[in-house]
Design goal:
This protein is α/β, with parallel strands linked by helices. The chain is 34% helix and 25% strand. Strand 1 and strand 2 (24-34) form a beta hairpin. It is globular and about 50 Å long. The protein binds adenosine-5'-triphosphate (ATP) and magnesium ion (MG).
């Protein structure tokens, strides 16, 4: 099965990516790839360049050098919209949601469904029904009409994951998804990740806490000061080995 996976075209491939913030060389020729249904743990110490890479892929910032391929074709991800159009969704702990809007409106933000007969008005019923369906599938109990400011941290992430599922994202980036979560919240996120993998979505998992993300990750890429220092399949490594190499390199 693994051999089949290796033959598939990567959803995303990055080659020789460099990023400078003024004099800070945050990514130094980084190479990365991810295949459909694969979860890759992108790990490393503070300031290693993990979020920088995530932001480049999500179209939040631009790389200075390097090439990005999307399903084999070279692409420029020059805006958040460009990333979304490719099918890339990013999930942060402090998810950028609009507090005063409902769960359903947040899920459909920027992609509102207009009803055919009423020109320009949103088909709230349809958006709410589809939101309900996808949040139930994720095991979330909140109502689609509920304002997002009343959602817990885990539920806010659920809204972002719901977007990913509903709009058939191909690649989802979770930057520190478990950092501020209770153990119940962590279980929920791990369940979301398994669900996304089953749907053939590629998942990039950025985390400091390896024991949590270890079981759901197929592969680990270790960054240190902007460079890849190790890459191993999950079955070839352990949370202890990953922690050790990161501590060694950062001291
Ligand atoms: N907007 C910015 N302006 C200047 N320097 C930045 C900016 N964003 C990040 N950096 C620097 O780039 C380097 C990589 O930062 P990045 O946020 O990618 O690290 P990280 O691996 O996500 O770290 P952490 O685990 O702490 O989140 C760091 O030295 C950081 O200080
Ligand atoms: Mg970061």
């Amino acid at each position: 099965m693994d051999n089949n996976k290796d033959r598939e075209v990567p959803i995303l491939k990055a080659e020789g990516v460099h990023k400078w913030y003024g004099k800070i060389h945050a990514l130094k020729g980084f190479n990365f790839e991810i295949r459909p249904g694969e979860a890759v743990g992108l790990v490393g110490d503070n300031g290693a360049g993990k979020s920088t890479f995530a932001k480049i892929i999500a179209g939040v910032i631009q790389k200075n050098r390097g090439t990005i391929y999307w399903k084999g074709d070279e692409v420029e991800i020059d805006s958040i919209e460009a990333a979304r159009n490719l099918g890339i969704e990013t999930v942060y702990q402090e998810q950028a949601l609009v507090d005063q809007l409902s769960v359903a409106k947040n899920i459909f933000l920027g992609r509102e469904v207009s009803s055919l007969d009423a020109l320009g008005t949103l088909d709230m019923d349809e958006m709410e029904a589809r939101s309900q369906e996808v949040t139930r599938k994720l095991g979330l109990r909140m109502e689609p009409t509920q304002e997002v400011r009343f959602c817990s941290g885990g539920e806010r992430q659920g809204v972002a994951v719901a977007r990913a599922l509903l709009f058939k994202a191909n690649l989802v980036i979770l930057d520190e998804p478990t950092r501020a979560l209770s153990s119940k919240g962590v279980d929920k996120i791990l369940k979301f990740i398994r669900g996304m993998k089953e749907e053939g979505i590629g998942v990039i998992l950025i985390s400091h806490i390896f024991p949590q993300i270890f079981p759901v990750s197929d592969r680990f890429v270790v960054l240190s000061r902007g460079e890849k220092i190790m890459e191993k399949r999950q079955e070839e490594t352990s949370p202890d080995e990953l922690s050790e190499i990161i501590i060694q390199r950062s001291s």
